[in-house]
Amino acid sequence: MSVLSERLVRYEELIPCRNAFIDTRSPGSDQKENFTIIGPGVAENPDQHVHIAIPHGFNIGGARQPPGCLNSQHSHLTEEVFVVSQGSWHFTTGVEGNDAVVRMEEGDIISIPMDLFRGFENVGDGTGYLYAVLGQDDPGRVLWAPQVFDMASDYGLVLLENGGLVDTTLGQKIPEGVAPMPKTSAEQIAQHRVIDDEELEQCVVRLADFPFSNNTALTQGTDVLEAPLIGPSSADEKLGETKLNWSHGFCVRALKFKPGAFITTHKRFEEEVVYVQNGSIKMLVDGEALILNKGDTFTTPIGAARSFAQQGDEVALIYVTRRGDTAKAPEFID
What we know:
Elements: E1 8-9, E2 33-38, E3 50-52, E4 58-65, E5 70-75, E6 80-86, E7 89-93, E8 100-104, E9 109-112, E10 118-122, E11 128-135, E12 143-144, H1 146-154, E13 157-159, E14 165-167, H2 186-190, H3 197-201, E15 204-205, E16 224-230, E17 250-257, E18 262-267, E19 272-278, E20 280-285, E21 288-292, E22 297-300, E23 306-311, E24 316-323, E25 331-332
Parallel strand pairs: 2-3
Antiparallel strand pairs: 1-22, 2-4, 4-11, 5-10, 5-12, 6-9, 6-11, 7-8, 7-10, 9-15, 13-14, 16-17, 17-24, 18-23, 18-25, 19-22, 19-24, 20-21, 20-23
């Protein structure tokens, strides 16, 4: 096995966890699949498979859900970003999920601030998939809305203070010296904001509104278009800012390749995770060729020489996540 293959996760090879969280048996939430692609993630089940454990300064995950399946209301200790890879989705805010709602379609991106309870539901006709980025190497634990604890108890699940999950229906017992997680209090709820639909829409960038340009440090003189999605403006990259411009600890860009388009060999100086939304891309990394297709994730070694070339007849759209609020300019190799 090559070093690069250890950094590649094919969509069809994703290993799901179907009981990652306390709401795993709650009606409407009992069919979701969670994926930890890079980093430890926030799963409460120690059996959750981690595909790539290399620290990046952020975590990459995924959620796959059938129509009508929802993820219960919760909040995080770090920034949480979703790309709608497949399907149509509703994102809701508020401890009961009735403060604000926004509908998102394939290619759209949302960044949900830490001080918001959020949930999401597949409202499309087929299986939906979300690609997710969470901040920091250790993104901490999930804070669940109070009603999630009540429903979990009805189905024999107990969340522990150390973040573990006990399934009493399997004969598991609460370990000695470890207390159950207290139900989320009114004081904790009060630390979260209440927003409306218009404010939630400000957390979204629609695919149709991506500010694509081929005059960036990476794409100048090519037929490739680049758009900043997450993070402040970056003078080194010749990228402006979008409305998702607050500090995340990582930045996200979109690259759009017309048929035949390519980017020549260059180096980057941060962790660079490539996710294919549409089409196919050929990467050459230190001379080794990789074909990436829809749903594939690849993390490029820092300092490795890499190039990109579109493959096939379909326009390729990829999302790139790098450590830090901004990245250094690429260094092209003659």
